[in-house]
# Entry
Amino acid sequence: MLEFMEGSHAVAEIVKRCRPQVIAAYPITPQTHIVEDLAQMVANCEIDAEYITVESEFSALSACLGASAAGSRVYSATTSQGLALMFEVCFNATGMRQPIVMTIANRSLGAPLSIWNDQQDSISLRDSGWLQFYAEDNQEAADLHVIAYRVCEDHDILLPAFVCFDGFILTHTFEPVTLLTQEEVDAYLPAFTPYQRLDAANPLSMGMYATPEYYTEFRYEVDRAMQRAKQAFIKAGREFGELFGRDYSALVEGYRLDDADTALVAMGSICGTAKDAIDEMREHGRKVGLLKIRTYRPFPAQEIADALKGVSTVAVLDKNISLGNGGAVGTEVKSALYGSGAAVYDYIIALGGRDVRKRDIAAVVDLAEKGKGDLFYGLRTEVL
Amino acid sequence: MAEVEGGCELFSAGHRACGGCGPALAARLLLKATGKNAILVASTGCMEVFSTPYPETAWGVPWIHSLFENAAAVASGIEASLKRQGRSEKVLCVCGDGATFDIGVLCISGAFERGHDITYICYDNEAYMNTGIQRSGATPYGASTTTSPAGSCSPGNMHKKKDMPAILAAHGAPYVATASIAYPNDFMQKVERAINTPGPCYIQVHTPCCTGWGFESGETLAMAKLAIETGLWVNYEMVDGVVEKAKKVRRKPVEEYLAKQKRFRHLFKPARQDAVIANIQAVADANAERFGIDIKKKESSE
# Structure
């Protein structure tokens, strides 16, 4: 059933239908509507979950880790400074192979303080071993949560995941969304069966320390699982499509790429604006397309190279910056396209909530086609 | 006390603790009190490291270590999960004084305020021993550590030990107690009481560290006992914030305790530091006054 609802509410509703048993979260803008909605659902007994009102994001993820280790499906949501505060637990959850699903309402990081959107927060955790999925719209944001639980809890994977959707631009925006019903979610997502759990009947030790004889192998195993997650995601995304008509089997998704000379590469809600801009440019005979990255981790390097074969110019829209080395996505796309002959340019854009319009997308394409790139787009030099 | 099946200890031998380790003894006593139906949450620290070098473990009950400062938050999640599953295991944190007094306070405060049914055991050896004897908020005044070294213009640690039991009692904890490995039955009884008291309970157990404090490894229990006998450590229980059952002693001068430990050696050599020793005696006197632990001598007329 198509419903008109706020992005945060869509996410809270679908999370409810994923039946998490323990929720631990700490309020932070623009994530608040999600955790408020879930708290109300718990208060109304609409969801059979323990809701822990922790005193910090650090404790939110720590509590999720404990609950997951004890055998429960868990959920949290955060953004920006909250995710930064979770940094230590993020790496820990990965190493301990806890399949935690967490929504990231993407927001910039201070200083200066900014509550508005970019993707610096989750991208800064790119090396933490969390799967990272980026949603273009609220429909995708909701659906990706169900897929995330399915992939994370797969005993061949056992990794945590961020489901990222842009703060305010999606979290606070009303869009038509078709949510899976409870019966549909139940049919797709099996009940949580922990691979191991803390259990007095079968005592085991979790989180032991490893000497140099073992540490490397632990890291290797996590990386292997991350690699396997590609196929797990493809399979889960395909089955989702077969059951519900929306196919998410693509790690990257092309838009009007087939005959494109110039390709934009982007993640998240900016892809919607880019598609509209591309439609207009196409009307003027410009051969422009878009490659949307859905799974930033595992990084689909081969899929990107395959999708952009034959494209002469690539413009990456980076809503983040790895200070001192350009945008993080751009750097990795350049690496993926090494030797392809394509000219790849990176554009730092839409930081701290700066709006991006179709004309900005067109301007980026113009710059790329003139060979001008690896720059901050739309820099206000008058305030420097 | 829970029966140990087949004569086996739930905290097994073969761990990597120093000979004479106070915390290792506390761990063994702790599991004798809890029995098998417990889940332990450890902080990073000596006990975590010496008991679980992968792929070996000394723990015969489910045990989890996540980070240095988050044991209380991890335990909160475990408790919530068990509640949802209708399971009966008791959840205990077992953390050192650095993890408890300093870096973990936020998580502990949150867990106690929310009222999770957990028991938090702090094994207090009065400094960061795992990293090489640096001072913590539990280090007593006058102790020389590697980050509060005694020097020509310093008497060692300048700060008084933080009163964690009072802080947790102020959170509304129904049961708070201090204990010492010198009195094993008392410690085990307190653990039993704590795990059977609904809500968040706290036990701070004094666990001398021969390596960090500088005494012979055979003297651990004697040192723990002297701490009690001098009034520098008081064994007491607080029920709903009210002190009950403080252990009474015929107090000895604090010098008898201080002089046996390398961490206080600078108070006696090369020159005796009367003012600092007097300040430490004042700490013991204040403890005696606050907890009423002095056994009064009978008056001659009686």
About this structure: The CA atoms of residues 236 and 246 of chain B lie 4 Å apart. Chain B touches chain A through 45 residues (CB under 8 Å). Chain B has one domain: 13-291. The mean pLDDT of chain B is 95.
